[in-house]
Structures are given as C-alpha cells and as structure tokens.
C-alpha cells in the first residue's frame, strides 16, 4: 500500500472535490479532479505490470502498457462523477469533473481475445485490497454489461488530460466507462474476466444497487446496479451567499446525464416557477453549459435552482436522491447598498 494515500477512518481515501461554484472551466484541470479510493491507493510498477483478459473468450490475451500504447489511441471527453457514499444514495455529493481520457478501446482488446456468445458481463479487478464498511475484500471488483461495451467509447485509459494517468487516478491503466458513475471505472486494472452473470461482491451486488421505484407490476422491491448517470445540474454562478444588484446577470452552470440532457430549467423563487434556460450541445460524453439571463424583480433573499431533463422525460427530484436539485441562496440589494 502507498504511504501517501492511506484510507481514512471511514475506509476510503479521497481528495475533496471543487464546490459547484468553483467548476469554472469546461475541462477540469487534473489537480482539481476529485479522487476516490475505497481501499487506499496501491503502488503499481508499470515495468512489471500487465493484465489478462480471460474467462469466456476464445483465447486469453495479456497486455502490457507498451501493448496498449501500440494500439490506436482513442480520446474521449467525458463527464466524470462519483455516485457518493454507497450507503447513502439519497445524499447528493456533487463530486464531479469533466475531463479528457485517452487509451485503448476495450472493444478492440476484446476482439483480440474473441468473446464467446454466452458472455453477458465483463468483470474488472483492481490492484487494491483491504477493508471497507467492515468487510474484507481481496480486490476492488466491478462488472459491466456487454451491451454497454458494444455501445462504444469504453476505454482502458492510460492518459488523463493529455498526460499519463496520475497514480491516484489509476496508473498504469484504468477502465473508463463514459455515462456510467465513476464507481464502475476500475483503477489499477490487474485482470478482466468475461462471465455469463454478474460478479458477486461487495461493490457489485451488495453495495451500489438502488431500489427501483415500484411500478405496480412487481410485488418485491427491485434493485438496479448504479450504472447510468442520472440527470443532474449545478449552478456555478452566482456563488452561494453572493450579494447582487438589481441590474441583472447571467446565471450559468453545468448539466449532464448518461445520454445527454434535452433541456434545463431555472427558478429564482425556490422552485415555485420555472423557465427554460439556454443549453449548449454535448461534446462526446461531456457536461453541457446552461445559462439564463436573470434580472431580479425585487430585493431580498432569493433561492436559485436549476433542473435538468432528458429526452425520455427524466428530471431531477427536489430531494432524497443523489441527483437532487442544487439550490443557491443569494441576496439581492439595491444599487446604493451594493456600492457601500
Ligand atoms: N480499483 C479501484 N477503482 C476505483 C475505485 C476504487 O476504490 N478502487 N473507486 C471508484 C470510485 S467510487 C470512483 S468515484 C472513481 C473515482 O475516480 P478518480 O479517483 O480517478 O476520480 O474510481 C472508481 N474506481
Ligand atoms: Mo465514487
């Protein structure tokens, strides 16, 4: 285990993310990207490192870092978000970045091995082991349905923002699943296995599963893996507790969802009334900038909110979910008191 990146008292090493009002650039600089490691950060020597793709394949294949570099390099701009504490899916943590990853295409690696037809899931193991939530784990293990891999842009990434992956982000190589919550993008890959069922483990079938809202046709509560990123948005400007004048300003922020956001609404009265904000288009799997010209109607406290929608009609809930609406309280004063 790495001396510099030991897990904290709750079992995870993390670097504090930027607050929403600090997410000023379209692409998050590497030093500002949040870091999450449930079991601490392992030390992996790239010289000795390689990983094998095995299980339900025609012939297992092993890749070194040089092998990965020799394959076509794919760059993907992608929103990167932590799902938050798996024991508290109701708490929004807003650990979010937007970065450019680069590496080998997982599809191309799998073609080399030849995936058998009965394979339904890819299991990916990380080099880290230890204790989390009172349970001992031999390796960080996640699974991925084959249909997501077929959709494309899943990488075995060795670069972040044009530079080799920093140790804490998964050096020498990590999985990167655009559109899926960060938990699925296994760092410090040691092994991949094709299987015909989900991987049974702490981070696959025990933690990181959400109860699906009942639809009346199923008696028992149904669970679904924390895969797709739910629609979400944050207001970057104005910052919380800003003191503003009556002259008006541009309210702006970022919005995102697994398959992109269709529109964003803005409220200046704590969610009583909403209006459409303008929304920029998505670049690959990136977040999208939204903005709204806003001229306060009067002085006093205002609660600003934004909510993102998808084409399939999903929208951010008011509370109780990891993607709940982000609210920003500001104070509007008249020109004279503002200048004092
Ligand atoms: N091997 C391994 N991979 C991991 C984790 C981990 O603890 N071990 N944490 C996951 C979680 S919960 C998140 S949010 C992302 C964070 O990636 P980052 O630290 O590069 O931002 O890595 C994921 N991959
Ligand atoms: Mo996470």
Secondary-structure topology with pairs:
Layout: E1 13-15, E2 35-37, E3 50-55, E4 61-64, H1 65-70, E5 74-81, E6 96-105, H2 106-113, E7 121-126, E8 130-132, E9 135-137, E10 141-145, H3 146-151, E11 155-160, E12 163-164, E13 174-176, E14 189-195, H4 202-206, E15 209-211, E16 223-225, E17 232-237, E18 243-244, E19 249-256, E20 263-267, E21 275-276, E22 278-279, E23 288-294, E24 300-309, E25 326-332, H5 335-339
Parallel strand pairs: 3-14, 18-25
Antiparallel strand pairs: 1-2, 3-4, 5-6, 6-11, 7-10, 7-14, 8-9, 11-12, 11-13, 15-16, 17-19, 19-23, 20-21, 20-24, 22-23, 24-25
Q: What this model shows, in words?
A:
- The structure is a single chain.
- With 340 residues, the chain is mainly beta.
- The protein has two domains: 9-225, Sulfite Oxidase, Chain A, domain 2, CATH 3.90.420; 232-332, Immunoglobulin-like (Sandwich).
- The protein has five helices and 25 strands.
- It has helices spanning 65-70, 106-113, 146-151, 202-206, 335-339; strands at residues 13-15, 35-37, 50-55, 61-64, 74-81, 96-105, 121-126, 130-132, 135-137, 141-145, 155-160, 163-164, 174-176, 189-195, 209-211, 223-225, 232-237, 243-244, 249-256, 263-267, 275-276, 278-279, 288-294, 300-309, 326-332.
- Strands 4-3-14-7-10 form a five-stranded mixed β-sheet.
- The radius of gyration is 22 Å and the shape is globular.
- It starts with 12 loop residues before the first strand and ends with a helix.
- Bound molecules: the ligand Nc1nc2c(c(=O)[nH]1)N[C@H]1C(S)=C(S)[C@@H](COP(=O)(O)O)O[C@H]1N2 and molybdenum atom.
- Residues 33-39, 82, 126, 128, 140, 169-170, 182-183, 185-188 line the site of ligand MTE.
């Amino acid at each position: 285990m790495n001396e510099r990146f030991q897990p904290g008292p709750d079992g995870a090493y993390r670097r504090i993310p930027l607050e929403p009002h600090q997410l000023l650039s379209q692409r998050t600089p590497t030093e500002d990207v949040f870091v999450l490691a449930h079991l601490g950060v392992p030390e992996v020597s790239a010289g000795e490192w390689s990983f094998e793709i095995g299980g339900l394949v025609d012939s297992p294949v092993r890749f070194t870092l040089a092998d990965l570099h020799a394959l076509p390099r794919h760059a993907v701009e992608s929103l990167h978000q932590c799902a938050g504490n798996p024991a508290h899916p109701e708490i929004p943590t807003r650990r979010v970045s937007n970065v450019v990853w680069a590496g080998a295409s997982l599809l191309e690696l799998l073609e080399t091995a030849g995936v058998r037809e009965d394979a339904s899931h890819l299991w990916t193991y990380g080099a880290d082991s230890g204790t989390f939530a009172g349970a001992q784990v031999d390796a960080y293990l996640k699974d991925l349905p084959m249909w997501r891999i077929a959709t494309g842009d899943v990488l075995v990434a060795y670069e972040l923002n044009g530079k080799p992956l920093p140790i804490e982000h998964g050096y020498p190589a990590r999985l990167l699943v655009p559109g899926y919550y960060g938990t699925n993008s296994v760092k410090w890959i040691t092994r991949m296995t094709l299987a015909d069922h989900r991987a049974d483990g702490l981070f696959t079938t025990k933690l990181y599963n959400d109860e699906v809202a009942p639809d009346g046709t199923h008696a028992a509560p149904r669970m679904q893996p924390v895969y797709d990123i739910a629609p979400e948005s944050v207001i970057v400007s104005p910052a919380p507790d800003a003191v503003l004048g009556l002259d008006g300003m541009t309210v702006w922020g970022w919005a995102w969802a697994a398959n992109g956001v269709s529109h964003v609404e803005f409220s200046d009265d704590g969610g009583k009334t909403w209006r459409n904000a303008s929304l920029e288009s998505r670049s690959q799997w990136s977040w999208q900038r939204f903005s709204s010209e806003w001229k306060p109607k009067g002085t006093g406290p205002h609660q600003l909110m934004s909510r993102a929608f998808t084409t399939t009609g999903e929208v951010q809930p008011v509370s109780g979910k990891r993607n709940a609406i982000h609210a920003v309280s500001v104070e509007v004063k008249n020109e004279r008191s503002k200048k004092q």
